[in-house]
Amino acid sequence: MSASVDRPVVVRARNVSKRHGATEAVADMSLDVHAGEVVALLGPSGCGKSTFLASIAGLVRIDGGTIDLADRRVSGNGVHVAPQDRRVGVVFQDHALFPHKTVADNVGFGLHALTRAERRSRVGDMLDLVQLADKGQRYPHELSGGESQRVALARALAPSPDVILLDEPFASLDPMLRSDVRDEVRSLLNLVGAAAVMVSHDIDDALALGDRLAVLRSGRIVQVDSPEEIHDRPLDEHVARIFGPVTVLPVRVTAEGPVTALGAVASSAVLAWAQGPVSLTRPHGVEVLVDSIGSTGDAVGTVRARHFVGHAARLVISLADGLEVLGDVPANSVLDIGAQVRVRHRNAQD
């Protein structure tokens, strides 16, 4: 589900800052999240993702800026609404279920304002929603990792919050289970139409849930956009590498059009970076040929390193001008370190 200007803004953060001693954890960060939209915060450890999420939840007091939830000021300008009064649901990495409470009691924990009958009804609805109606009297230690995650989500959704915050929600799950649980969570968020903000180190998690990605570095949002736009038109190399290994190729503009060391590229593939025009190519986009087979227009290089990556062998190829290019070849390829090769864009023609 994509963000749309006709959906109300549920989270409006403006120029948010937060320091931990001498460290500026969040610096002048602004972000809007619309109803029914999931925004995934991506970036390395220490970049400010979790601090920003905690600021929205009210778990930390911000030093500057403002945060509004559903058009209500909750942080900034002398205001700090307590976490329990923000209408925010939080799903933690370790689920944070109460081990001494049943599944039903865990889900109903935040429903103190309801009568006993209303609370029982709401808990039943939530357990139906996450397909755990038959597990209400179980205890957390009797559940699988995926079931625990669904209970945590049901608990977060039970009070009908304005926004759901997910802090590395799949990090503790077995890799074989992770994909299925991600799909279930995405379906549930779509079903309830909740706005959500997710923190993740994992690009697969972010792509599975995020309608938009916000890439952070050193406490700042570097770029926020759809996954497709960030993949195709990253604003710098840091953002480009969020999606995995990439070769940055300087572009020369000629009378025939833009050209890189690997040949001509379409004008639409040229990015205007601070250091000058560049084009990006992923390892699968580089064609590697034995020296005698290639065209005279191909770049010539030497294989400097070779790594097995499961589906292929990834070569690090040094060109004559010192540029290093990453290219994938079949895993059973005879090309090895020291081999002389020609390289070009995979769609190049002889």
Could you explain how this protein is built, in words?
The protein is elongated and about 80 Å long. The chain contains eight helices and 22 strands. The chain has 350 residues and is α+β, with helices and mostly antiparallel strands.
Characteristics:
elongated; 22 strands; 350 residues; 8 helices; five-stranded antiparallel beta sheet; six-stranded mixed beta sheet; alpha+beta; single chain
Q: Gap between N and C termini, in Å?
A: 42 Å
Strand content: 35-45%
Number-wise, the strands total 22
**Parts with pLDDT < 50 across at least 5 consecutive residues:** none
Mean pLDDT comes to 91
What is the ordering of alpha helices and beta strands?
Answer: EEEHEEEEHHHEHEHEEHHEEEEEEEEEEE
- Overall geometry comes to elongated
Q: Which strand order do you get reading across the main beta sheet? A: 7-8-9-3-10-11
Brief characterization of the structure:
By secondary structure, this protein is an alpha+beta fold.
Q: Secondary structure elements and their pairing?
A:
Layout: E1 9-20, E2 23-34, E3 38-42, H1 49-57, E4 64-69, E5 72-76, E6 79-80, E7 88-91, H2 103-107, H3 116-129, H4 145-157, E8 163-167, H5 175-192, E9 195-200, H6 203-209, E10 212-217, E11 220-225, H7 227-232, H8 237-240, E12 247-250, E13 252-254, E14 257-260, E15 263-264, E16 271-273, E17 276-281, E18 286-290, E19 299-308, E20 313-319, E21 324-329, E22 340-345
Helix pairs in contact: 3-4, 4-5
